[in-house]
Amino acid sequence: MTIDFDVDTLSGMVPLRQAVFSLGSNLGDRMEYLQGAVDALRATPGLTISSISGVYETKPVGLLDQPDFLNVVVVADSTLASMVMLERALAIEEVFNRVREVPGGPRTVDVDVICVGERRINTEALTLPHPRAHLRAFVLVPWLEADPAASLVGHGPVAELVRNTDTSGVVRRTDLRIE
Ligand SMILES: Nc1ncnc2c1ncn2[C@@H]1O[C@H](COP(=O)(O)OP(=O)(O)OP(=O)(O)O)[C@@H](O)[C@H]1O
Ligand SMILES: Nc1nc2c(c(=O)[nH]1)N=C(CO)CN2
């Protein structure tokens, strides 16, 4: 018999899982916003950053008529429930005055939860893995740099996804660095 349980609803003893966050900014002092968001993730109890990608200048995906983004990916080990990670991500966006005027439009900082271990969730508030991550070179390229062995639940090795994705709009900014 297999007992299927869900660690997000199992109170108390939660295992350490790998969480992946995609951060983007295309308004104001983009590096300041990204550094601030990474610092806020680093200060999150129950979450320890294990790797941060380099900084990438990326052409906007979706709504094209907006400034270029800076994107980074943060990989962490965490005992937090997935919903708590989303709440933290949304709180960080709030702190940095993110204004949602246009869906998919410009923002000071956007913090998306890409995946939490092998967890699959499909609720109105949270979808895991992020439903568009496998299509987004601005997520996949930095993620592969941060974790060359990365794999995306349901889609396979990130290295393979990168090989099958147009990465021409994603350029490493070797002059920039998140501390
Ligand atoms: N994996 C996830 N990461 C972040 N937000 C999520 C996720 N799944 C669902 N959401 C929900 O999506 C809502 C809208 O997110 P947001 O405004 O950041 O979208 P967007 O950045 O414009 O577009 P996209 O979702 O394509 O990145 C959030 O309030 C959140 O509840
Ligand atoms: N290059 C780039 N394009 C985007 C980004 C982003 O972070 N980078 N975020 C979006 C909504 O999450 C939509 N389009």
Q: Give the low-pLDDT segments.
A: none
Q: What would you call the shape? A: globular
Tell me the series of helices and strands, N- to C-terminal.
Answer: EHEEEHEEEHEEHE
Largest sheet: 6 strands, antiparallel
- Give the helix tally: 4
CATH superfamily: 7,8-Dihydro-6-hydroxymethylpterin-pyrophosphokinase HPPK
Number of domains: 1
Helix content: 10-25%
What does this structure look like?
This protein is of the alpha+beta class and 179 residues long. It has one domain (17-172): 7,8-Dihydro-6-hydroxymethylpterin-pyrophosphokinase HPPK (Alpha-Beta Plaits). The chain is built from four helices and ten strands. Strands 1, 2, 3, 4, 5 and 10 form a six-stranded antiparallel β-sheet that branches. A two-stranded antiparallel ribbon has the order 6-7. Strands 8-9 form a two-stranded antiparallel sheet. A hairpin with a 3-residue loop joins strand 8 and strand 9. The N and C termini lie far apart (48 Å). The mean pLDDT is 92. 2-amino-6-hydroxymethyl-7,8-dihydro-3H-pteridin-4-one is lined by residues 24, 58-62, 69, 71, 104, 110, 112, 138.
